[in-house]
Design brief:
95 residues
């Protein structure tokens, strides 16, 4: 597949981009290089290669999730500029 100006215009429209003529030419070159590289990758025989899902065989390398310090509701609300007895009060952002 060869990328031409019409293809770049269509992709730019779908991505809501405005490209100058010089940018279009650069984009055509870049996209054709990407497709050439993908074609080279498709030439490689990967029939005996297992798909890579994870980069390592480690199962869980994270520490246990343990509560180390609890904060009471009163302590959490202490430095809040606006609050009632239980909640932070913030400006309404959804109408």
């Amino acid at each position: 597949m060869i990328i031409d100006s019409e293809t770049v215009d269509k992709i730019a429209h779908l991505a809501r981009l405005e490209l100058a003529d010089t940018e279009k030419q650069e984009m055509i070159g870049d996209m054709n290089k990407i497709l050439d590289f993908m074609a080279k990758l498709n030439e490689i025989d990967t029939s005996g290669v297992e798909p890579l899902v994870y980069l390592s065989d480690e199962v869980n390398v994270f520490r246990e999730d343990v509560v180390k310090q609890e904060v009471t509701v009163e302590e959490a609300l202490q430095n809040s500029p606006k609050h009632d007895d239980q909640y932070f009060l913030v400006a309404k952002v959804i109408g």
